[in-house]
Write a structure and sequence with these properties.
The chain is built from 3 helices and 5 strands, in the order αββαβββα. It has a 5-stranded antiparallel β-sheet. The protein is α+β, with helices and mostly antiparallel strands and about 140 residues long.
Length: about 140
């Protein structure tokens, strides 16, 4: 084996771990799936909307997960809560379910609307909208 080939093999052997680390340390994206159901007394009752949105990007999965937790804390303690309705929420894993009632609702009153926010951290090469379209 000549010296040039030996140097090339040595170089590739040293470069491969560095390249795989660079690939593993790609960007992580914080996504939210926003699913809404409408007022039972209104003309749109039963209508549902579902949208995926990008909230943030991070250089690591751990940083993305930290931002996910901060986002859940922020949405469950809003600075400007709705003025014309009362809200209840439940956090289940990385999802928050909101239920909105008329202000000063009675136990027999129906809810106005509901909303589920599902958060997920994914590598920038994965788009959750593609999985939703296949369902």
């Amino acid at each position: 084996m000549n010296v040039r080939r030996l140097v090339s093999l040595l170089f590739l052997t040293l470069l491969l771990p560095v390249a795989s680390e660079a690939l593993a340390a790609g960007t992580w994206v914080l996504w939210v799936e926003d699913e809404r159901f409408w007022d039972p007394k209104g003309e749109h009752w039963g209508r549902q909307t579902r949208n995926w949105n990008v909230l943030d990007a991070s250089s690591s999965e751990a940083e993305c997960r930290r931002k996910l937790g901060e986002t859940i804390k922020r949405v469950t303690n809003p600075e400007n809560p709705p003025k014309d309705e009362d809200m209840m929420y439940k956090v289940t894993g990385d999802a928050v379910t909101f239920v909105f009632f008329p202000k000063d609702a009675k136990p027999t009153d129906k809810l106005r609307r509901s909303q589920v926010l599902r958060y997920i951290c994914l590598p920038d090469t994965v788009d959750p909208r593609e999985r939703s379209e296949r369902k």
